[in-house]
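Backbone-to-sequence.
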């Protein structure tokens, strides 16, 4: 009779990491109400970029310094997965090393997305880099720095990204924009200077 049957999918079982985050409650957010020195805390998340005339999608992740707004590491790729996220960490670590710094004891703040609760992400940040991780309790509302960054970036380059025909062209466009953002774009919250000043 072509009757639709209701489907009830079982709730996903939380991972061990997700159970620990829930048990920790509000203490998982290490940045709330705190002020930080430059390079002491970073925030991150993914955003989607449309290119190829609107027919193709790519994912961009960036790590922003909370104090200076410097986009110290970023990566662009076809999937928002831990491989892409770790490429952004590699980029950040390379830039920090050039400054004689590292992620040791730095805080990395993000939501509870599966990428940021994955063993690969936590192993790299906690064990390899010696960093600390901080989670939002209520999604993007507790990560206004990254959301603001994505809003500005996408407003400024939306038309150009749609015109990019390949991932290579899109990557070059994003690289150009990141250089502009870090070195020339003035920020009112920084006294009208660029992050890399």
């Amino acid at each position: 009779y072509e009757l639709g049957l209701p489907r009830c999918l079982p709730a996903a079982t939380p991972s061990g990491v997700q159970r620990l985050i829930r048990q920790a409650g509000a203490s998982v957010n290490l940045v709330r109400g705190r002020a930080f020195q430059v390079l002491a805390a970073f925030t991150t998340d993914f955003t989607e970029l449309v290119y190829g005339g609107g027919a193709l999608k790519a994912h961009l992740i960036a790590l922003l310094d909370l104090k200076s707004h410097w986009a110290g590491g970023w990566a662009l790729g076809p999937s928002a997965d831990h491989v892409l996220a770790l490429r952004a960490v590699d980029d950040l670590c390379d830039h920090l090393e050039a400054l004689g710094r590292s992620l040791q004891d730095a805080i990395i703040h993000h939501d509870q997305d599966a990428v940021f609760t994955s063993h690969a992400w936590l192993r790299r940040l906690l064990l390899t880099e010696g960093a600390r991780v901080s989670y939002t309790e209520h999604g993007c509302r507790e990560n206004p720095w990254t959301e603001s960054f994505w809003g500005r970036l996408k407003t400024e380059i939306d038309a150009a990204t749609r015109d990019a025909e390949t991932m290579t062209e899109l990557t070059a466009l994003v690289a150009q924009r990141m250089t502009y953002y870090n070195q020339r774009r003035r920020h009112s919250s920084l006294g009208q200077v660029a992050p890399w000043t």
